[in-house]
Design goal:
The protein contains 12 helices and 15 strands. By secondary structure, it is an alpha/beta fold. α2 (34-48) runs parallel beside α3. InterPro entries: Calcineurin-like_PHP (IPR004843), DNA_Repair-Maintenance_Comp (IPR050535), Metallo-depent_PP-like (IPR029052), Mre11_N (IPR041796), Pesterase_YhaO (IPR014576).
């Protein structure tokens, strides 16, 4: 038994990446073409590594095609694999379920799309491999399909291909729920999962893996993205993560409490950017920067709004080599004495700041808010705060970000009021 395969998922080809036009200077075309370029990189990797087959664990597309160009592009890449002798086995997930994609194109003969009616098995007899899978018939699948998957084929390396949230993952809708015990009991050697966009090796024996999505699409999908290159030999399974993203997203939180002047601030920002990029010159880096702490820089920002953001963007321009786009700069600074005094107040403003402190210190408090009605949380937010597009609040970090936005607005208003009185 000796073969090699790639395991990828959540390509989201032609994901719309809404809202980019709001950012002046954003590399819009490069960002929107990133999912296509990542797929091309996946195919290049498969051909260069001479893999025997490729597994795609759902959400190839982000939504129904606006026209046939999306489908034709994917088909073109599958033709490249066919010419290179690479088989492809794929299931459809919640984003590209049969009930979602209305337009259809016949795929080349090397591509097998598993049925949405029942789980089925495909065997590669020369390799002694059996692949089991089932596609989503529509966007929402509420039941556990694992018990209905076929029994393992004796004498074969058995692979389960499944789009699932398992027992639940933050920021991901609950689809085809199951658990590690059910997967293990099935007796397969490898579970190729999809749906969760963060890479996770769930279990080593059997090997259960979410490879993550192929290309990060926004600031909440940070870090390297790609696929798993898997080699199976008589000695066992060897797996290697292969980054394929052409745009890499970063979130940098910089505490500038000890920074007193712009020169020191610029040095801190430059050092943080260089460390985040880690010498990577191959791709575009999209960075969201958040400035925190109790700092005298807040006075400068109050006198000249936008100063700190401009300095961050200037520091990114000065980097030698790496291509960096600063997607957003969030200033969350407060004066050293002001915040403590305000937090002690016995009013709604003091309550808000104490709530922020609780969220920062105890992640469980943020999780609790996700279980409460959204209106109850928004009632605590000042009316001046511009609510972001992700106001659905699907994970704890978004709760913290929203409350930090509220705190920044409140402290800025108090500062303006104090300056007006003087």
């Amino acid at each position: 038994m000796n073969f090699t395969f790639l395991h990828a998922a959540d390509l989201h080809v032609d994901s719309p990446l809404k809202g980019l036009d709001r950012y002046e200077g954003a590399p819009v075309e490069r960002l929107r073409n990133a999912t296509r370029q990542a797929l091309e990189a996946l195919v290049d990797t498969a051909l260069n590594a001479r893999v025997d087959f490729l597994l795609l664990a759902g959400d190839i597309y982000d939504r129904d095609w606006q026209d046939f160009h999306t489908g034709l592009f994917f088909r073109e890449q599958m033709v490249r694999l066919e010419r290179g002798g690479v088989r492809v086995f794929m299931v459809q997930g919640n984003h590209d379920a049969q009930g979602v994609i209305s337009r259809q194109l016949h795929l080349p003969e090397n591509v097998t799309v598993f049925s949405s009616r029942t789980a089925q098995t495909e065997q590669l007899e020369p390799l002694s491999v059996a692949i089991h899978g089932r596609s989503f018939p529509n966007r929402a699948v509420d039941e556990d399909w694992v018990p209905e998957y076929p029994a393992p084929v004796a004498g074969c390396f058995n692979i389960g291909l499944l789009h699932t949230s398992l027992s639940g993952r933050p920021g991901h809708d609950r689809y085809a729920p199951t658990d590690v015990a059910a997967l293990t009991a099935k007796g397969y050697d490898y579970w190729a999962l999809g749906h969760v966009h963060h890479r996770e090796v769930v279990c080593e024996s059997p090997r259960i893996v979410f490879p993550g999505n192929l290309q990060g699409r926004h600031a909440n999908e940070t870090g390297p993205k790609g696929c798993d290159l898997v080699r199976v030999t008589p000695a066992g399974i060897q797996s290697e993560f292969t980054p394929l993203d052409v745009v890499r997203w970063h979130r940098l939180t910089l505490d500038v409490t000890d920074i007193k002047d712009i020169a020191a601030f610029v040095r801190r920002v430059s050092k943080a950017l260089k460390e985040a990029l880690d010498g990577d010159l191959e791709r575009l880096h999209a960075v969201r920067v958040q400035l925190t702490g109790m700092s005298a820089l807040q006075d400068l920002e109050a006198r000249q709004p936008g100063t700190l953001e401009a300095q961050v963007r200037a520091a990114a321009q000065d980097l030698n080599g790496p291509q960096v786009w600063v997607e957003q700069v969030r200033v969350r600074l407060s004066r050293p004495l002001e915040r403590g005094q305000v937090a002690a107040r016995d009013d709604a403003v003091g309550e808000l700041l104490r709530l922020v402190d609780e969220m920062m210190e105890d992640p469980d408090r943020a999780a609790e808010f996700l279980q409460q009605p959204l209106a109850g949380l928004l009632d605590k937010i000042p009316g001046e705060v511009e609510l972001p597009d992700w106001v659905e609040l699907k994970d704890e970090q978004q709760v913290r970000d929203l409350l930090l936005d509220a705190e920044s607005t409140v402290l800025a208003r108090l500062g303006e009021a104090g300056q007006g009185e003087s």
